[in-house]
Amino acid sequence: MTMVQVCGFVLCLFIGLLALTILYLIWTRKIDLSELLSEANGDASMSRFQLLIFTFVIAIALFEIVESSMKFPDIPQGVLVLLGISASTYAVGKGISYSQPQVMMQGSVGKAPDGSDVDDAVAAAQAAAGQAAAHAASAQQAAAKAQQASGNQT
Amino acid sequence: MISPTRIMHFEALGFLYGLAAIVTYQLFTGQINLQGLLQRKDGTGQTSPERIQLLLTTIAAAARYAAQVAQAPPGTLPDIPSDWLYLMGGSSSLYVVHKAWNVFKAAQQLGEKS
């Protein structure tokens, strides 16, 4: 085995481990993709979704072609125009949204800026308040009992 | 013995398809947020026709291109017909113009209220 082959195998091992680690971290949500398509107000963005679909389709097509012919093909003008249209839609959409931030935040569909659901948060806060009240009542009862018990002892 | 080039090929293929599979899985299970994807962002919460048409055009164009790639001669990336580019351009323009109209109208209404 030559030195070049050894270097090739080491490089393969490194890239393979890197790819596996990235996929594992995405799967276990340590690399969080939940906001991949979200705007600043927490709503999903149509232009991001479009860009994601085209990127995947063209990346997979390009990879298959490189793999079958073992050379990098010329990228046709039409593909570049399509990606340009998609990216421009995304950029212009962002420009419009951020030019009126008060409308963007007011127009969100039941979401807080951090992506959490407002209704869920309110319900959780109410439940927590109810629990706290129940705990306070039982603590008062326990304190009263303890006071009574100490009174009886004296 | 298998060559490093062949190993690299399988690694890249596995990564690309693995990433696509995880993103698709997370989209379908709701782990990637899709809330409000087809709704207007002007506070009314109504379903937006221009978003639906953009979604349909996007899916149709992507599917058509994937079919073209499958039928293309080996080693060439197929070009996209100009009529599909006009369709995508028109659909995206409609979406952007409608979005601008809605956002500026909502901003005007907010300004009048305050």
Q: Describe it for me?
A:
- The complex is a heterodimer of chains A (154) and B (114).
- Chain A is mainly alpha-helical and 154 residues long.
- Among the domains of chain A are: 28 residues; 72 residues.
- Chain A is built from 5 helices and no strands.
- Chain B has 114 residues and is an all-alpha fold.
- Chain B has 2 domains: 34 residues; 78 residues, no CATH class.
- Helices cover 70% and strands 0% of the residues of chain B.
- The termini of chain B are far apart.
- The mean pLDDT of chain B is 87.
- Chains A and B meet through helix 1, helix 2, helix 3 and helix 4 of A and helix 1, helix 2 and helix 3 of B.
What are the salient characteristics of this protein?
heterodimer; A: 154 residues; mainly alpha; 0% strand; elongated; B: 114 residues; 2 domains; 70% helix
- Low-pLDDT runs of chain B: none
Quaternary class: heterodimer
Give the amount of beta strand of chain B, in percent: under 5%
Contiguous helical run count of chain B: 3
Radius of gyration of chain B: 21 Å
Q: Give the SSE order of chain B as H and E letters.
A: HHH
The largest interface is: A-B, 74 and 67 residues
**Strand-pairing-aware structural class of chain B:** mainly alpha
Count of the separate structural domains of chain B = 2
Shape of chain B: elongated
- Count of helical regions of chain A: 5
Largest sheet of chain B: none
Radius of gyration of chain A: 29 Å
> Poorly predicted ranges of chain A (pLDDT <50, ≥5 residues)?
110-119
Element order, helices and strands of chain A?
HHHHH
Helical proportion of chain A, percent range:
over 70%
Counting DSSP E segments of at least 2 residues, the number of strands of chain A comes to: 0
Secondary-structure-derived class of chain A: mainly alpha
What sort of overall outline of chain A do the alpha carbons produce when their principal axes are compared? elongated
